[in-house]
Write a structure and sequence with these properties.
The complex is a heterodimer. Chain A is an alpha/beta fold. Chain A is built from 5 helices and 6 strands. By secondary structure, chain B is of the alpha+beta class. Chain B has a domain of 197 residues. In chain B, helix 5 runs antiparallel to helix 6. The chains are: A alpha/beta, B alpha+beta.
Chain lengths: 201, 418
Amino acid sequence: MSRTLVATLVLATATILAVGGCSTKVTRMDVEEVKDLSGAWNDTDSRLVSEEMVADMLERPWVARHTQATGRPPAVIVGEIRNLSHEHINVNTFVADIERALINSGRVEFVASKYERQEIREERKDQDLNAREDTRKPMGQELGADYMLKGTINTIIDASGKTQVRYYQVDLTLISLADNRKVWLGQKKIKKLVERSKLRF
Amino acid sequence: MLALCGAAGCAGHARSFQKIERCLAEQDPRCGLDALEKRGTAGRDEVLFLLDRAMLLRAAGQLEESTRSFEAAKVAIEQRSALSVTEQTSSLVINDTTRSYVGEPFEQVMIHVFEALNYLETGAVDAARVEALQVDVRLRELADRYDEPILAEDPFSRYLAGLIYEDEGEWSDAMISYRLAYEAYQAHADRYPISVPRPLQVDLVRMAARVGLADEARRYRSEFGIERCPPLPADVGQGELVVFVSNGLAPVKTAESVTLPAPSGLLVRVALPRYEDRPNAVRDARVRVDGREADTVPVENIAGLAKATLEARLPGITTRALARAAAKYAAAREAQKQNQLAGFLLNMAAVLSEQADTRSWLTLPAEIRMARIPLAAGEYRVRLDVLGERGVVERLDLGEVTIRPGKKVFRSRTVYRP
């Protein structure tokens, strides 16, 4: 190989690398597609947990029992889902997923959370002063929740060198507000092996 | 003949930092942020840029932004921790600064500490707890890599984790963290000035008693000479105010280099980093609340830790510098044999390119001080007296706090008076 050829090759490679490194490439993905990048908690985990939890929750006897006893579907409120894991996890996405799936099933009613309620009450107070008589919503007519959904996300991390085993455990509990009875416990475990590369360019 | 390089010429990273330092001395972190953005950054120094940015944002009171910057730094470190083939080669051929900066072990731990302090300031204890867990993972990783306790352990991050667990009511986790902190303070005390802080001594005694380790509690009692121990605030319906003061700025790395002529007429140069303290007029700080005064005590001596870290890592850095010098010399000698001028030019390039890696996280404080004051539930105004060589230098207002029974309220403040 002549010297100029080598030089040209080196230059060409450098140019390709430089150009490749500069432009941003965007590819649209299906939301169901699994793509694990860093090994941290991601959208797939959130979706898997919510789907499994909802399916489990609805097929258990507590719903039927409550409906039989009171004649109306159980009203649930979402309490605190505590993140006790090693990562800053956005729990709102899967709480929203769970809420949506449960409401849409038509078998469970949901009560607005503490923070949402505050805003609604302010609006009602405002209606009291400013809205027309026939459209005014009276105070003191709120639906009281029968059950509160609480939960935790825990992790155990075992690491050696560049390899990590990440174990996630999500526990959700449905507690009766009337008598502190636990009517349903849901649990979902996720385990991942993360091997980080030892070398890069 | 021995030619020492002038300090100004070598302190590349620190020198470009002077403007930011001036802004900090004038208590104007916003101007420091502007200066940092203007200075820009090379890709391999991205981690440093993000860390400095996070600290300046913290000092400016923009805690959420600061936390985001810390998180970005963590990701950048993760990405750059893999050994880069190109950087490794250039660090052997040119100098160590061509490698991506991923932080000294203690700097990596400090990310979690300051991010946790950001969360605690806003009362997000669960989020701070995430950082406490991450510190544990980070330290386990470091212990995997290093035997040296200076590189593999950190006292204050353990202590802070203990305080966070205590606030969550997780007594046994708190006890374990206090114990690890105690061991780390002792291991580090041999290497630089630090000792087991008085508040931790009290925590050890009462937490050991609380979780039923009577023997251990007795042992701590006699070791620290504690006769009567104040009760756990949570057990007597009290709350607690915890104040952290980040005092001064961490030392800067400067280069010390030696250039020697070899018998062949060629020059050989070796450059190594060295820490230099930055001026600090503040000696102490005192918290005033509810008509009481509480002294702050040093809980982390970052300046001492930085120097001990460099000391522990210097053999490795020196080996690399010598190997580099030998390789550069051999190349120049080979060229010299063929052509005198080529040899001279290559030698010049080799000598000029030889630089010590003087990069470090420059916005870290020189030390962290802490005061803890048990208080009955209620509203309080908190003030901080900054003390110099001859009494009070400045009186700062830390604002109002609401103390609730069984809970801690955390406040932190950055103080820099050169």
